[in-house]
Amino acid sequence: MEAAKPTLKAEKHQKARKFWTPKRKEALLGWLFLAPEIVGMLLLNVFALGFSLYLSFTSWNLLSGISGIKFAGLENYIHMFQDPTILKALKNNLIYTVLTVPVPIAIALVLAVLIHNKVFWKDYFKVVFFIPYISSIIAVAAVWSALFHPSLGPVNQFLMDLGISNPPKWLVDPKTSLISIAIISSWAGLGYTIIIYLAGLTNISSELYEAAEIDGATALTKFVKITVPLLRPTTFFLLITMLIGSFKVFDIISYLTEGGPDNSSTVIVFRIYEEGFVNYNMGYASAISWLLFAIIAVITAATWKLRKEE
């Protein structure tokens, strides 16, 4: 029996050596490097997601601590669809999305084609258009707030010089506050959209344009028949990301108008912030968050379906 013990140990050691091949050791090392990120994702994303879903069925004042959580069933969701500020925020979000997604995409596409084909010093213009995107959105908003000042701002001064005696009040007028924010957001994000389109244009073979020229195609025909169809994957990518981004807008509205005047620029994310961190009503804020999640999921699924059918 004593002579058999070393043999058993040797067999176990040999099996271990066969199991821990260099490939498996390398894989284990990779998982160890990924472990902090995976644990962080599970704690900060998966747990937070599940906890917020649970909170959406509760009544919880954040100041009361964990012991203050009380189950409320569907009360938050019923109240949400009867809350006029939520309905107003949804309407504002839709208007903001219409103003900041299709129009900037169309403008960026035209500018990208012009820069790619007709403009000298292309790299200079790429940098000029991209600077607002990489700048702090608060800094950008502060500059535009001064430009849109109702009486002293350069924009209204220029309009009055043109003979418009009563120019728009921009950010302080309920009729124009959301439009003003949409203009600022579109201007700040235009550079990113142009850069993405320029990257897509470099992948289109020049031989296609040369063949079209031989056939007598005009610049407009080449744009409609070659450029636009071949940039559809790029446009689809921009459409998805910009749609999601338009429903997540918060910082620029919080800085410029705080949802006002008269809730004219309130959006869904700002209402979540108000309920959760101003009114400390975390249960109701969580329910609104899941409404936002559902909206983004439906929009993304519908866009993917349209793309797949196409």
Written overview of the protein:
With 310 residues, the protein is mainly alpha-helical. The chain is 74% helix and 1% strand. The longest helix has 34 residues.
Outline type = flat
Q: What order do the strands of the largest sheet run in, or round the barrel if closed?
A: 1-2
Q: What string gives the helices and strands in order?
A: HHEEHHHHHHHHHHHHH
Query: What structural category characterises the helix and strand content?
Result: mainly alpha
Count of discrete alpha- or pi-helical segments spanning 4 or more residues: 15
Summarize the structure.
The protein is mainly α and 310 residues long.
Structural topology:
Blueprint: H1 4-19, H2 22-55, E1 58-59, E2 70-71, H3 75-80, H4 84-100, H5 102-117, H6 122-134, H7 137-147, H8 154-161, H9 177-201, H10 206-214, H11 219-230, H12 232-247, H13 251-256, H14 268-278, H15 282-309
